[in-house]
Design brief:
The complex is a heterotrimer of chains A (310), B (343) and C (306). Chain A contains 12 helices and no strands. Chain A has 310 residues and is mostly helical. Chain A has a domain at 88-300: Orthogonal Bundle (MetI-like fold), CATH 1.10.3720.10. The longest helix of chain A is centred in the middle third of the chain and has 36 residues, at 88-123. The mean pLDDT of chain B is 84. Chain B has 12 helices and 13 strands. Chain C is mainly alpha-helical and 306 residues long. Chain C has one domain: MetI-like fold. The longest helix of chain C has 37 residues, at 95-131. Chain C is flat and about 95 Å long. Classes of the chains: A mainly alpha (310), B alpha/beta (343), C mainly alpha (306). Chains in contact: A-B, A-C, B-C. At the A-C interface, helix 1, helix 5, helix 6, helix 10 and helix 11 of A face helix 4, helix 5, helix 9, helix 10 and helix 11 of C.
Chain lengths: 310, 343, 306
């Protein structure tokens, strides 16, 4: 177990290094230079100062060395090019906190509601609850997030006036973004759990349990649920990734000052230091989440002994 | 045969599979009784309906896909299992009848400790605490000769060998001292050496507990020194039944004969090839007009293709469904030499 | 028992008793799969809908006589009418034409990306599985690294870097790591199949390794590939929509469903039809691909065969 985790950690660092390097060199291979969007209008002296400040006079590999050193030693991603004085790291930390508040809620509700709906759909297979749930699940995968967000906004803020349109601060402003973000997870989990439960129900050990005289409710609780939720952990990784990227849209639409909001803005602004910093941060987050999910899977499934895997 | 107490009686059992291709009649009117403490073997090729029959005894089938036809009866202690409500059924399963499944690799819950799986059965049928159940579960593991049962109870199924797992499955079936144990091909998925051990264990348990056993198997070799009575199934029907002795020494149905001929014998004088029955059983989706075995029977007669033979009692519990027993049938030697007396 | 004649009791044996063993026709794998798909009403409806949508993206832009680029300052933001079936946008362009023109682009992106990534994935996966050992190890490590990067982040990065908004770069960005999943799937499947007796038998008979892959393995994984493609296409269409929303998609006057929807999203309250129509097309396409994919998976899964 320990050796496995150690190995995974090593791979994680290799992966992160590759991503960081790729991001950095690709961004610096763009014709012109990072300042070209804005710096052209600047007088030469100011321009020189900028170059000095962002270390752009150095060779690209050296710049990369400095960049990497700053991340590792002090978790410093540099300064925004577009908004001088604004530290990328600060923006990331601030934004990530806000994003996490929405993201975790969305994930929590999405996964739990999705699991419940999936189990219900499996148990009522080919009857109306199944059809209704699968209809909702299909909606979740067929409607683009921003369209769904528009509809939700229109319905709950303009028509019903239950919630404010945009903004950040109170719980009321969290409800709609959480619903929007959770829809994807609900859909994904409902579909996955349905097939997982159906597969489990047909296993021989369910027959054994029935032959013992276990009631249907206890078969569901003790035998079906556990065995069908375990494989569902594997799609937790992709679901979390979907919540991350879904946040790009929802945060922009609902005006939430989260990481996704800054990321999309920095793309529109071509704020290169911000883009590099946020991308690397996302990569770290994502790779770490995957590692945690894999370890979690090994912990809850007694059949998997992580050391023997490979 | 002395008068014994019937504990299970199956009357006109019909089980259908409702597939998209049509209705498959897997079991077509099976009648039999089980007496206290006896061992009854149900023998036949795969697909003959023996497993379906045994599962139906516990109502272990999925309603929309598999259904039992109107008019079928499974009487346990005079009560119809097919008409039991949920509560009665749960009390019947495990408590009155235990079941051993074919494949120990898949018949245990992979995410539950084996001790807990036994304790679960114990706690359903007895008013005992978790702790008491755990202690009892270890006792049950000891009963099925699992070494170091305290430690094994804490194992997950994948940590045990196939033979060990089958012992656990047997321990679950035995846990509430049921009056009947149904063993569905309990040794098929195991190595040959392990097979013998498991059969010995079952015999030992029968000695100790006097439980009635229904042994479902395709292997007549397994049955010979284990069962007291045998019934041979073919295409969802019982084609011949009788004491193990009668069936081994005086088989009356060509199918029983064929099954016997395909078992290797040490004493066999012919050192040639082992007999093998040609062809496959009929497709059960079809309505059968004549004898289902006609297509593969070397004694097939025109009447066999037209009409279903009736069951003919040959005395002492031995009966057979075959036209060869009809007075008009030609003499084909041992299979029907005594037919005139019977008719 | 009514009359039984002695004639009926004459032994005819097995040879000429003429009884049919099985009256059910034996059907092959693809035939059986097709039959099962056809029996699945939902999947067939999805297939029909899909064909209709595809057809409309081909002929739709030519039906009205308007060009998708043609602006008409006199008729801005018109609601659907006899002259403009789907209405017009803020620059007075005919939306019916634009919706199907955009659909054409979306479909091309979906189909091409799926084709490219499947091709790469299948090749990569089979090579990796076939050679095994060190080659497999290195190739799979690479996939592991690629797959652990959030997909959309890569796409965004590539789009930002190339800063070009034509179809080619879009497809490149979308497929850059999109093939990894397919490669893994195919590798796993092939490794499993390789252990099977008939492949060993073929190898033992001296059939060349390459032929073994082509002749035995690929056809066996074809079902898997088809299902994968059916789910990939809408995935790519969806990703394109997303890119359009964050401003990295197809640029005007060219358009796609995603671009149309994201352009309309800002003024959605005043001109809901501008958002509704392209969104409906996206949803219908996603729906039909997803349902068809579900149907195909059920139809092609040999475990489901009775």
């Amino acid at each position: 177990m320990f050796r496995y985790i150690l190995k995974r950690f090593l791979y994680m660092f290799i992966t992160l290094f590759c991503i960081t390097a790729a991001t950095f060199f690709l961004m610096h291979s763009i014709p012109g230079d990072p300042l070209s969007y804005m710096a052209k209008k600047l007088p030469d002296q100011t321009r020189e100062n900028y170059y000095e400040k962002y270390g752009l006079n150095e060779s690209v590999p050296k710049q990369f060395g400095i960049f990497l050193k700053n991340i590792v030693t002090e978790f410093n991603f540099g300064e925004s090019i577009r908004y001088p004085g604004r530290k990328v790291t600060e923006t990331i930390v601030e934004g990530a906190g806000v994003s996490a508040a929405v993201g975790f809620q969305a994930l929590f509700w999405g996964v739990s509601i999705g699991i419940i709906l999936g189990v219900i759909a499996a148990y009522f297979r080919n009857r109306w609850p199944d059809y209704l749930i699968m209809f909702i699940a299909i909606l979740g995968v067929t409607i683009p997030v921003f369209v769904f967000a528009s509809l939700v906004q229109y319905l709950f803020t303009v028509k019903l006036r239950w919630f404010p349109t945009t903004g950040w601060g109170s719980w009321k402003e969290m409800v709609l973004p959480v619903i929007t973000l959770a829809l994807g997870s609900i859909a994904g989990y409902a579909r996955y759990m349905k097939s997982s439960v159906l597969e489990t129900i047909n296993q021989d050990y369910i027959l054994t349990a029935r032959a013992k005289g276990v009631s249907e409710f206890n078969i569901l609780r003790r035998h079906v649920l556990r065995n069908s939720i375990i494989p569902a952990v594997t799609i937790l990784g992709p679901e979390i990734a979907a919540v991350f990227t879904g946040a790009f849209v929802t945060e922009k639409m609902f005006g939430i000052p989260g990481l996704g909001f800054y990321y999309v803005n920095s793309i529109n602004d071509r704020d290169y230091t911000m883009i590099i910093g946020t991308t690397v941060f996302y990569a770290i987050l994502f790779v770490a989440v995957q590692l945690v999910v894999d370890i979690l899977y090994g912990v809850i499934d007694p059949r998997i002994t992580l050391t023997k895997q490979e | 045969m002395e008068q014994q107490e019937k504990i299970l009686e199956v009357k006109n059992l019909r089980v259908n599979f409702n597939t998209y291709a049509g209705k498959i009649q897997a079991v077509r009117g099976v009648n039999f009784s089980l007496y206290k403490g006896e061992t009854l073997a149900i023998v036949g090729e795969s697909g003959c309906g023996k497993t379906v029959t045994s599962k139906a005894l516990l109502r272990l089938y999925q309603p929309p896909l598999v259904s039992v036809a109107e008019g079928s009866e499974i009487l346990y202690d005079g009560q119809d299992v097919l008409k039991m409500n949920k509560k009665q059924l749960q009390a019947y399963r495990g408590r009155e009848v235990g079941m051993i499944f074919q494949d120990p690799m898949t018949s245990l819950n992979p995410t539950m400790k084996v001790g807990d799986q036994i304790a679960e059965a114990l706690r359903i049928h007895n008013k005992i605490s978790k702790k008491e159940a755990a202690v009892l579960a270890v006792e049950k593991l000891r009963l099925v000769d699992i070494p170091n049962p305290e430690k094994r109870a804490e194992c997950y199924p994948h940590q045990l060998s196939g033979g060990m797992r089958q012992r656990v499955v047997i321990a679950i079936a035995l846990s509430c001292s049921p009056k009947i144990i149904i063993a569905d091909e309990p040794t098929t998925a195991l190595d040959v050496t392990i097979q013998a051990q498991i059969l010995d264990l079952l015999m030992e348990i029968r000695e100790k507990t006097h439980t009635a056993i229904i042994l479902v198997t395709h292997d007549l070799g397994v049955v010979a020194n284990f069962a007291s009575r045998i019934q041979v199934m073919y295409a969802g029907q019982i084609v011949e039944r009788g004491s193990t002795r009668d069936l081994f020494y005086q088989p009356r149905h060509p199918y029983t004969r064929a099954l016997l001929d395909s078992v290797p014998k040490l004493s066999s004088k012919t050192h040639g090839e082992l007999y093998s029955l040609k062809g496959t059983p009929p497709d059960l989706i079809l309505e059968l007009k004549g004898c289902p075995f006609a297509a593969r029977c070397q004694y097939c007669m025109p009447v066999c293709q037209e009409r279903m033979p009736e069951e003919i009692d040959l005395g002492e519990g031995h009966s057979v469904s075959c036209w060869l027993q009809h007075p008009m049938a030609p003499d084909v030697g041992p299979l029907n030499d005594g037919r005139k007396a019977g008719a | 028992m009514e009359e039984l004649s002695q004639e009926q009791f004459r032994i005819i044996g097995i040879e000429d008793n003429g009884t049919e063993h099985s009256a059910r026709k034996k059907v092959g794998y693809w035939q059986d799969a097709w039959r099962r798909l056809r029996a699945n009403k939902i999947a067939m409806a999805a297939l029909v809908l899909l064909i209709l949508l595809l057809l409309m993206t081909i002929i739709g832009p030519h039906l009205t006589g308007y060009s998708y680029e043609e602006m008409d300052k006199a008729s801005k933001n018109l609601p659907p009418s006899a002259a403009h079936w789907f209405g017009t946008d803020e620059l007075g362009r005919d939306l019916f034409t634009r919706v199907w023109q955009g659909g054409r682009v979306s479909m091309i992106i979906g189909l091409f990306s799926a084709a490219v990534s499947t091709l790469i994935g299948v090749l990569y996966g089979s090579i990796s599985a076939f050679f095994g050992g060190v080659v497999d190890n290195i190739m799979m490590r690479i996939v592991e690294i690629l797959i652990s990067i959030p997909y959309l982040i890569i796409v965004i990065l590539i789009s930002v870097i190339t800063d070009s908004k034509d179809l080619g770069t879009m497809i490149l960005a979308l497929t850059l790591t999109g093939w990894c999943g397919t490669a893994r799937l195919i590798r796993g499947q092939i490794l499993q199949l390789r252990e099977q007796e008939y492949v060993l038998a073929a190898e033992a008979l001296g059939v060349s390794p390459f032929k073994v892959i082509l002749k035995h393995l690929i056809p066996n994984t074809l079902g898997l590939i088809i299902v994968g493609v059916t789910f990939d296409i809408p995935g790519y269409i969806f990703s394109e929509t997303f890119l359009s929303y964050i401003g990295l998609g197809i640029q005007a006057p060219a358009t796609s469903w995603g671009a149309l929807a994201s352009a309309a999203q800002a003024n959605f309250r005043f001109y809901p039809y501008q958002l509704f129509l392209p969104s409906l097309m996206i949803a219908l396409t996603m729906l039909s691909f997803t349902l068809l994919g579900d149907g195909l998976r059920d139809a092609l899964d040999p475990r489901m065969r009775h």
